Amino acid sequence: MLATGAYALLGVFVCLNYWVDVQHRVSSHLPTDHSWFEWLFAHGAYSVRHLENPLFTARQNAPDGVNMMANTSLLGVTLPLAPLTMLLGPQVMYALYLGGALAATAGTSYWLLSRHLVRSRAAAFVGGGFLGFAPGIVHHANGQPNFVSNFLLPLIVVRVLRLGEPGRWWRNGLALGVLVAYQIFINEEMLLLTALACLVVVAAYAAQRPRAAWARAGTFLAAGGVGGGLALLLAAYPIWFQFNGPQSYRGLQGGVFHNWGEDLAAVVTFARDTVAGDEAVERTIGLTEQNTWFGWPLVLVALVALALLVRRSLTARIIAVLVVVFGVAAIGPKVRFNGVETGVDGPWAYVPDDLPLVEMMMPTRLSLVVAAAVGVLLALAWDALSGGGRPPVPAPRTAPDAGPAAPRAARRPRWLRPVGYAALTLALLPLVPRPLPAQQIDPPPHFITAGGWRPYVPAGRTLVPVPIPSNVHGLPTLRWSALTGQEFPIPGGYFIGPNEQGEGVFGAPNRPTSTLIYATMDADRVPPLTAEHRRQAVEDLRFWKASVVVLGANPRERALRELMTALLGPPQRVDDVWLWDVRDRA
């Protein structure tokens, strides 16, 4: 309870800048992602309130809609938390959940370590804290709560390690199947990374303990079959819907993620959102996600710990294998060093862009497995220094190892424990996270929040906000939908959907009118217009099934109002918005 309470306080601290003005603040680094996940909480509440299929929505990208299983929909969270979202609103729910997910991941990691790998509670606390708040995890907390929602992964790992337990194959298989099926609705990519890591762990264990592995192979495979069969049964329809349902797609256009490898210099660099971090470094090596960014003290301490533990700890040897395999795999198609792409091929240069399961993976995210391995290593090192502390809760008989054997105090120099504790502490202190940076955002127009739009938007019609939401423009107008409970559908949006070739692209394909709007915003002036532009505007309004076009306060408001007036005629001033009633034209 003390460990969980400490993690919860740290989760609140990380989100502190949001809580200063939770209704009007979003991530400074990924504001559109932040707004997307607020919209997702609203989607979960809308689906529950209206008893609609949560796997698909027509409230964004009208009239085509969005395949929610083919996007980072976080349904395993937004649906059960729907009552709280209805009560508190998506902004509060986002900030509350983000800190809670960080703390919950640290908590389940602490449980795994304290019950199955180390004897010292302090060691489990240190390792659990790193697993929940590692630099790479905190980096993703900037607008991507799906990548900090890892609280089921330690439970899945434990169940995998227990699959060979004699006499419990049925129960262990069922438990694993339920956990895997639920994780599919939280983050499939993290589940894939965990599966790959478990595969390497099992292979490394079998290579070092072949007789023990062979003796348990039958039970392990039987339990694994039960777990896989149950997971497939529970998730079969959603997975089918993801790849075959409306607005599904195959891969991303141009394999945009495939080239994102980890910079070798990033491993020894302090992450931006830690107390030792510096935003200036992003101009050199920060071109990809900060998934390792351990800082040189931790890298040095980790290497020393591995050198000391690897000879007498099976777990440490498996950690070494994980670090090497996933550290190398995270390099990507070309080796990058200190922001410069070298001419040396990385491992992904030999991986086809369209390989199933990995076609949408970012190589750099494989280094999240390295971060998890380092967290376990920190716990093992602290536990070895403490001499094991109290006797552990009995570990499962199929766990790879219960950690390094506690060295006898008489054979250990007196200076080793204080020096070891000091080294670990000094390596971790620079990585303590800072509150995530947040920026102020204007509230939606009163016309929107007070329901002034209702007389203008009958059932089956859409409200067209200007600018139309996209992955580049229209962050405030996307929030109009989220903060009104998605009561009106909107065209465009922030999502991944298919292009004409069936490949995934970000956002809706631009219509002529949306292209004109974005060009006007970029130039802050209206381009030359023709009768064809006006004809296309009416055609686009019909395609969107528009009933009203709404322009609220915007830095480009003057130019946008001039554009829409030239296309649609003079607007009305209603409350605090400019409004074009187009029901007679669309």
UniProtKB/TrEMBL annotation:
A Pfam family this chain is assigned to: DUF6311
GO MF annotations, alphabetized: transferase activity
Bilayer-spanning residue ranges: 94-113, 122-141, 191-207, 219-240, 293-310, 317-335, 366-385
Signal sequence, start to end: none
UniProt feature, compositional bias: Low complexity: 398-408
Keyword terms of this UniProt record: Membrane, Transferase, Transmembrane, Transmembrane helix
Domain DUF6311: 45-340
Region described as Disordered: spans on this chain: 391-411
Protein name: Glycosyl transferase
